[in-house]
Amino acid sequence: MTPAEVRSQLRSARAQMERVCTLLESPSPATLDSCGAVMERVIGELDAGRRWMAQSGETGVAEARRLRSVVQRARSLLDLAANYHFRWRRILAGKSGGYTYRGAPAPLHSQARVSIQG
Predict the structure, then answer these.
(1) Residue 9 CB burial class (10 angstroms; 0-12, 13-18, ≥19)
(2) Cβ within 8 Å of residue 75, ≥6 positions away
């Protein structure tokens, strides 16, 4: 793989991850599923080209840094979503199961996920 091909692959991965970030800004269950598929594909592509990336030169390194920045943004968006849902689960647990003797919300017994659209 030539350095130009490596840079092109990195640019493509960054563009795909930027689309993922845009979708994660207003997520839905279907959006999250498609984001997961895109991220898996990007990981596979990057893993396949890993040994060639070292030979891509300074331009390739710069492109890899830009990609890392976008991946970190996607991670932040996913962390925010996880935190949001964690807090709602704690509220639900407190309202439906009461509290433990230490004052913490009782654990929810169901781990099932339900999504209802009306």
Answers:
(1) buried
(2) none
